[in-house]
Amino acid sequence: MNAPPEHRHEPGPADRPARLTVGVVGAGRVGPALAASLQLAGHRPVAVSGVSDASVRRAAALLPDVPLVPPAEVLQRADLVLLTVPDDALPGLVEGLAGTGAIRPGQLLVHTSGRYGTGVLDPARRAGALPLALHPAMTFTGTAVDVQRLAGCSFGVTAPEELRLAAEALVIEMGGEPEWIEEAARPLYHAALALGANHLVTLVAQSMELLGRAGVAAPDRMLGPLLGAALDNALRSGDAALTGPVARGDAGTVAAHVAELRRHAPGTVAGYLAMARTTADRALAHGLLKPELAQDLLGVLAEGDDR
């Protein structure tokens, strides 16, 4: 964990990396945005690799005039290489680059996977690379707005101790806030972020779809203030912010919800039941749901599962 603010060493000029040439392997939504933010800090993007038409367009929009070249050539040109490929592709990419001799000793090799720490970069480390894991806790669009959103964004940072200050300095130069994550904690850290952010998108999309079926003309406008307040309350108060029929123990209302969802959107029933059960458990544990009301509520949820 990070040291308390009063004891934390903030990287100063002596800790910051020298101006670096920057390369990107994998021009998805993340890599070009990070390279563009490093460019604003004075570093120089020199090469990017990408295969799909969308990757080529993103690179052209965020990194104009930066040549599109094969991955091995990116490593030849750059002092700092961003490996921004999907998690499952990262181990094979690293092994392939190390096996072909593309990695240069002293080269900074940065991946942006939330799942992995620096262990996945061990083949590159053995070839002399300096391994860093810098994961931005942000959702990306693949447009210039991503560079702006990096301001104040937390990054999950994992690095060898001797490279910790350099890793944190790079994050600060991109406008982010470094948060130290131990190697062994990376999968749990990433699961926590996915549980909150990825599932939130699914829930909001389902909610908007159901409101549209109910005749609401502007579901986004209706949900915006409600969800904004709910998120703010949850971040401030945690489980104490729970409201609604499950937290109150309104079994009849929940039964009506399940019946309507079965009728109009059966694909949402399993998710509703799972979240309602989890909400009930947490509300019980925090004294919000009265035990005498919980029995009927849990009975409704069990019946919904049986059906």
How much of the sequence lies in strands comes to 5-15%
Structural class: alpha/beta
Averaged pLDDT: 92
Q: How many β-strand runs?
A: 7
SSE series: EHEHHEHEHEHEHEHHHHHH
Outline of the structure:
With 307 residues, the chain is an alpha/beta fold.
Structural write-up:
The protein is of the alpha/beta class and 307 residues long. It is built from 13 helices and seven strands. It has helices at residues 31-40, 53-62, 71-77, 90-99, 122-126, 145-149, 164-173, 186-213, 219-237, 245-248, 251-264, 269-285, 291-306; strands spanning 21-25, 44-49, 80-83, 108-111, 130-136, 154-158, 177-180. It has a seven-stranded mixed beta sheet with strand order 2-1-3-4-5-6-7. Helix 7 (164-173) links the parallel strand 6 and strand 7. It is elongated and about 65 Å long. The two termini are 46 Å apart.
Core attributes:
seven-stranded mixed sheet; 307 residues; alpha/beta
Topology:
Layout: E1 21-25, H1 31-40, E2 44-49, H2 53-62, H3 71-77, E3 80-83, H4 90-99, E4 108-111, H5 122-126, E5 130-136, H6 145-149, E6 154-158, H7 164-173, E7 177-180, H8 186-213, H9 219-237, H10 245-248, H11 251-264, H12 269-285, H13 291-306
Helix pairs in contact: 11-13, 12-13
